[in-house]
Every structure is written in C-alpha cells, then in structure tokens.
Amino acid sequence: MTDHQADRSQKDDAEPNCPLAYSPALMTDMYEYTMLDAALQDGTANRRSVFEVYTRHLPEGRRYGVVAGTGRLLDALEHFRLGEDDLRFLYDNRIVSPNTVRWLEGFRFHGTIRGYREGEIYFPDSPVLQVEGVFAECTLLETLILSILNYDSAVAAAASRMSTAAKGRPCMDMGGRRTNEWAAVAAARASVVGGFSGTANLLAAKTYGLKPIGTSAHCFTLLHDSERDAFQGQIDALGRSTTLLVDTYNIEEAVKTAVEVAGPELGCVRIDSGDLAEMAQRVRGELDALGATQTKITVTNDLDEYALAGLQAAPVDSYGVGTKLVTGSGAPTCAMVYKMTEREGNNGEMVPVGKRSKDKASLPGRKLAYRSYEYNLANGEHVVSGSNERLESFHTPDDMDTENLLVDYMVEGQADTRYQGHDAIMTARAHRAAQLSRLPIAAQSLMKGDPAIPTQIQVL
C-alpha cells in the first residue's frame, strides 16, 4: 500500500457518515487479530462461520430492550479497512505476522449480516444480529459490533422509558457534556431511535440530520450587567420565539422581565433548578397572568424516567435530559455477547457449535426469530435454531398470528442503504413506538419486573 493510498484512506474515514478520524478496523481487541493470524497459519481462516449477537438477560428489572446502532454499524463497515500506518503498527508490535499483514491489505468485509430492525424491541436470547462469512472476516468485527450495539441500545432503551413516561411531551438530548465526546454523538442518535425529538449536540445534528436545540446558559445572564440586558440581547439575536433561562436569580422577577422584554409572543422559558413541578406551576400561573398564555415551559436538571413520570401533573411542555440518558439510566450496557453458533467442518458441512460453560452456555445453530400475537397484542418471542436446510423448511403454525423479526442488513458485503442515514433513524423511531404499543401494558411500567413477554426456544 502506497503512502498516497494510506492518506486517501484516512480522508475517507472522515466522511460525514462516519465521524471518525481513524479506522474502525482498529476498534478491536487484540485477540481478534491474533486469532486471525493463527487461523491463517493453521488453515482454518476460510471456514464459513456464523456469529450471533444476543443478551442472556435484560438489565435488572427491565421489561424490554430496544435495538439501536445497526445503522451506525453499517456506516462503520464502509470504512473498515487498514491504512499503511495501521498495518505497520500491527507488524511492529508483533501482533500479526508478515503473511497476515499482506492478507489484510485492501481488506473489506464481504459477509452477510441480518438481524432485528433498528428500533425493534428485544428480549433475552433474541438473535439481535447474525453475521455470516468466513472466520477470518467475521472475527474481526466482534468488538466494533458489541461496542456499538451495547451502548446505543442501552441509550435507546433509556430514551424509550423516558419518552413513555413523558406521555407525548417532547424530550431532548442534552447529555453531551456528561460522556465521552464520540459517545455523545452516538447517544444523540440512539436517543432519537428511543423516541427523543432533538439534540443539543451539533455534530450529531449535522451528521444524522437531527433537530438541533439550545439557546443560552446561566453564564450568558451573568455576563451582562442585568438580567434585562441579557434577555434583550438574546431576543435581539434570536427573536421572540427563543427560550429564556429564568432561574439564574429570582424566577418570579425573571419571568416578569422576560415578558416585558419579549412581549406575550415569548416562545418559551426554561427552569433548571428547584422543585420543578412546583416552579412550573407558579411560572405557568404568572405567564398566564401577564398575558403570555402561549409561552411554553421546558425543564431540565438531572431528569430520568422516574422524574418525568412525577412531572405529569405539572404544566410542562418539554424536557431536556442529560446524564441519565447518556448513561442508560443506570444500565450503561446491555450485556450483549458475540458468539459463534455454526462453522464449516473438515468435510465442508456446516456444524452447529456452542459453549457449554457454566452459566454461559450458548445455543448452537443459526436462528430464525418471530413474535406471536393474540388480538394484536404480543404474547411470545420465538427463537428457532437449526441448520440452514431445516430453517428454510420451517413454517410458523397456521393458526398463529406471527411476525418475522429478521431483516437483511448486508448481503455478501453489500449494505442495504435503507437502514442508513436520517430517514432510517426516523423510521426506527416510528417502529419502536409501534412495536411498544403492541406489547402488554406492563412493558411500559417503570416498576421492576420480568420481561414483558416470554422467549420460547425451539431446536429443529
């Protein structure tokens, strides 16, 4: 690989769909490359293999999970290649042999990926993603896949619980300052899959076409000689439809000043401290008394799904959520794993394989997955395991209302672009809402409990 090719590769990695200035092909654990190296040397690297992503359990007490990140994964796979500097790093650190370096030059993933749609609800043992190809290419994707799906799905599940608790009032992502800078971008995207309406993170808004939100912080008020001057400056710059932050000093005085400066056409006021329900009630009354009956109220300040549920009786129009969103509201990972379930044997036949480890056993064989319904209400998650031949001849019971849960994301290295970009995010957002509405009502409870529907496993 020439220096020119390496430079071009690095530039390609910075394209809008992939906010990275470095190769996703090094977002791996070292053992993925050492396994590749050993498999190339012992002749097993080109054995056809099937890997599966699933979780053995939901976070404690959660009723469901939400798949998120698959679109981001497809974006990353477009850039999953190694530049000259990357190859030199692997060689200089004796991670791989010279033969493996040569094999990795110009590497592209040419396998097939299928799984649950982004925005789909999942449960324990749901085959969220299945990756099929030769061992050499499939093993390199483990860490990248898990790091994306585990985090994005955790944020999307938290966002879904918050959106549900908000009862239709818009929720906005304001968590960028509470997590890693790249995680903030991923979280903003995942939050929209989970039902949020916008983000304060401008890179996320630009990259994924999300609604950007935000006006001013307390420092803007403190910068000015008076609160009136600050409000006037903001109105002059942003117009009367802006949101004024009213809790820097005295809220009652701030609301009065805000209406005096902006008039009854003031768009919104934000409250960021105190007893939010009580303050919102008082502010609503004051706004109405001042004639600003159409001015909306938004609240922020360490909100989570429980706080949002507790604010239902308050006259609040929207919410800004930060720390709890980007940390999965207490469940920052989904404990998803990436396990081989089938591989080619010496005779060329595909052989189901699985771990037998205590408390970590895996179900051998590739999978089908469908959900069953009665009266348009989900009553079971069904996972069917077996050889490709047996799965192709499998049919769901004629007397059962069912829905297939698997879609093809990538076939022989070619991604289905319908699952990438802004439109895919919005489709996933709508899909999550539709699928959640078809679960038993207990799924929307914030009380700890069992998964909303049971998972039934069938081995053919």
TrEMBL record:
Keywords: Glycosyltransferase, Ligase, Phosphoprotein, Pyridine nucleotide biosynthesis, Transferase. The keyword Transferase applies. Residues 171-341 form the Nicotinate/nicotinamide phosphoribosyltransferase domain. Pathway: Cofactor biosynthesis; NAD(+) biosynthesis; nicotinate D-ribonucleotide from nicotinate: step 1/1. This is Nicotinate phosphoribosyltransferase. It comes from Bifidobacterium bombi DSM 19703. One of its GO terms (cellular component) is cytosol. It holds the Pfam family NAPRTase. Transmembrane segments: none annotated. GO terms for molecular function: glycosyltransferase activity; nicotinate phosphoribosyltransferase activity. Residues 26-150 form the Nicotinate phosphoribosyltransferase N-terminal domain.
